[in-house]
Write a structure and sequence with these properties.
alpha/beta; Aspartate Aminotransferase, domain 2; 2 domains; 7-stranded mixed β-sheet; 4-stranded mixed β-sheet; 14 helices; about 40% helix; about 15% strand
């Protein structure tokens, strides 16, 4: 490292420590540029990124067509406020409806913000007929965000510790357990929220009958089914949206991360049956909004992402490549401290053996030291979630890196 570069790194860290709250743990790396599935730090070291901006950079870093879309839009119009229409919003909403279940979109800034909007819609739905239904059932190991309602849907203390008193109306039952879900329903229940594949909870894929069973429960008890696709949306799992593998249709789908390609975009997409509850005419006010939600530049980038993913056949490709990665890891499992490999498409969890002495975080840190960024979920699960443009050679390098680190 040259003296000049070292001075830049030291200055960056000094500014961060002085002027930023340390709400995230940091790895001690200052990233300065990225391209595709690689990024470079301030020392000139290049890393293979197999965690895609915590799931957000679905088409990699600085995809040239997304850069062009952002640049073109920035030269025309940045922002006009939500009392005026703009074309990029309409194009993105149409793309989501076309590839999803035909619902109508309400734009937000993040996945957590999208879930906050969904919970507001649940309240309106539960009181539309004069009853007072407001409760939401979530699942153990769930993660739905850090907003004040979303953190209550999130399981455990990770997002909630220290923020009591909590909002009423949220409960949790075991994931992938239809009987437990049915037993938790009472006269005040209005909705169920689940991740079609759990992310932060350890990449857990439910049984084939779980989502159809939840759909049947919601239909029988007049509940809304909310599918949190913040991690699983936009092609990562080999479907445009992970729920599509089950053959059911949700009432509400929430998006974040990949839908913005690394820009701050969240979406609550509601079925026509309930979307009118969330309109000014029905509600009498603005039910959920923020000044910059639906900003022209991220909307244009997101709409272009859908075009690229469809044109290049990246959804089925993600399914095929994911199967190959999981097969390669399972083949090595007998020689490595791997308890389980699970997931769908390029959304993969690698659970470490109970006896393995190192935590997932320690494995991620060692892999980073060897030039590969992975993710973790808790203390025992590695997460493998690259951009869906990742090359086969990069995936092979990632699999080999995992084998090398676990075998060392």
């Amino acid at each position: 490292m040259t003296n000049t570069v070292r001075e830049r790194v030291d200055a960056t860290i000094e500014r961060r420590e002085r002027f930023m709250t340390q709400n995230y743990p940091r790895w001690g790396i200052t990233v300065v540029e990225g391209s595709g599935c690689e990024f470079t730090d301030s020392t000139g070291t290049t890393y293979l990124d197999l965690f895609a901006g915590t799931g957000a950079t679905i088409l990699g870093h600085c995809h040239p067509e997304l850069v062009a879309a952002a640049t073109e839009q920035a030269s025309k119009l940045w922002h006009v406020g939500n009392l005026l229409d703009n074309e990029p919003q309409s194009l993105l909403a149409e793309a989501i409806a076309r590839h999803g279940f035909g619902g109508r979109s309400c734009f937000a800034h993040s996945g957590s913000d999208s879930n906050e909007a969904a919970f507001k819609l649940v309240r309106l739905y539960g009181r539309r007929d004069g009853r007072d239904r407001y409760k939401v059932i979530a699942t153990d190991r769930a993660f739905h965000g850090r907003g004040f309602a979303a953190m209550n849907a999130t399981s455990g203390e990770k997002a909630r510790k220290g923020y009591e008193p909590f909002l009423e109306g949220f409960s949790h039952v075991p994931y992938n357990d239809l009987a437990a879900m049915e037993a938790a329903i009472d006269d005040q229940t209005a909705a169920i929220i689940i991740e079609p594949i759990q992310g932060e909870g350890g990449v857990h894929v439910p049984d084939d009958d779980y989502l159809p069973g939840l759909r049947a429960l919601c239909d029988r008890h007049d509940l809304l089914l909310i599918l949190d696709e913040v991690w699983t949306g936009c092609g990562r799992t080999g479907q445009w949206f992970a729920y599509q593998a089950s053959g059911i249709t949700p009432d509400i789908m929430t998006l974040g991360k990949a839908v913005g390609c690394g820009l701050p975009v969240g979406v609550m997409c509601a079925s026509d049956r309930i979307a009118d509850l969330f309109t000014v005419a029905s509600y009498g006010g603005v039910p959920h909004a923020s000044t910059l939600s639906g900003n022209c530049i991220p909307m244009a980038v997101s709409a272009r992402m859908f075009e690229i993913v469809e044109r290049d056949g990246l959804v089925p490709r993600a399914g095929r490549l994911g199967n190959e990665v999981m097969s390669a890891l399972r083949e090595r499992a007998g020689r490595l401290p791997i308890k389980d490999v699970r997931g769908r498409g390029l959304f993969i969890g690698i659970e470490l053996d109970d006896e393995y002495p190192r935590s997932a975080t320690e494995v991620v840190r060692e892999a980073l030291g060897r030039g590969v960024l992975l993710g973790s979920a808790g203390e025992r699960v590695l997460r493998f979630a690259p951009a869906i443009i990742v090359s086969e050679s990069q995936l092979e390098r990632g699999v080999q890196m995992i084998a090398d680190v676990l075998g060392s």
